[in-house]
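Quick one: sequence plus zinc ion SMILES, need structure tokens.
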Amino acid sequence: MMKKFIVTLIITVVLVACSTSPTGRKQLMVMPESQMITMGVQSFHQLLEATPRVNDASIIQYVQCIGDAITQLPSVQAVSSDWEIVVFDDPSANAFALPGGKIGVHKGLLTVAVTPAQVAAVMGHEVGHVLANHGNERVSQSFAANQGLALLEGWLGKSDNKNQGAIMAALGVGTQVGVLLPFGRTQENEADTIGKELMARAGFDPRESVALWQNMARGSNGAPPEFLSTHPSHDTRIERLNDNMASAVALYQQSGNKPQCKR
Ligand SMILES: [Zn+2]
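Reply:
Sure thing.
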């Protein structure tokens, strides 16, 4: 099985090692898409076992409504036609998305993202990581750095907790909810760009993304949320978000979507 895996890996490297992200950036990607999906779904189930869900139906419906507006977009449907959105009962202002169509939103996010468009900005950003295959890129970089053995063993079904942890770290989540690990700065910028476009197409005013980061800058005490953790400063991020804002606003105004998501 190991031999077969290595042969498959080599073929995959040759075929797909040089991919292009949605923003036109060259990426190293060696993992088959199907494997990324398996890893994403497994990680999500582990998180579900470890952390309680929110029971409040009004919160669940509110987050689901916003998530639906984003996940129904053709570019998001192309990645998965069956997105699952779960609100975790965790006070940290955080969210994540995983290959295989899984989105987790922490209840605490709603204290910082105070409008539907601000929640959409975060969910769009997280889905942007999945659309741009950032998990695959990070796993591939891990292989390239000769640290791929744990991942490889996990892939081959010998996963213990340590290996599962390595897989989840590569996907941007910790082994427990509340510990989300940052992507690189390039990937964060790219997720911001994609997220802004997704929220606009979904019918949310992309200018609200700036308001969100301003709230975050005011409210971040202790460990920064995943989507804030790898960037030079709030000001720089806000400045960059304002780049191309006119084209995102145009997308928003042309969007036929008008989601009515209320708590
Ligand atoms: Zn991010």
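The radius of gyration is 18 Å. Residues 35-254 form one domain.
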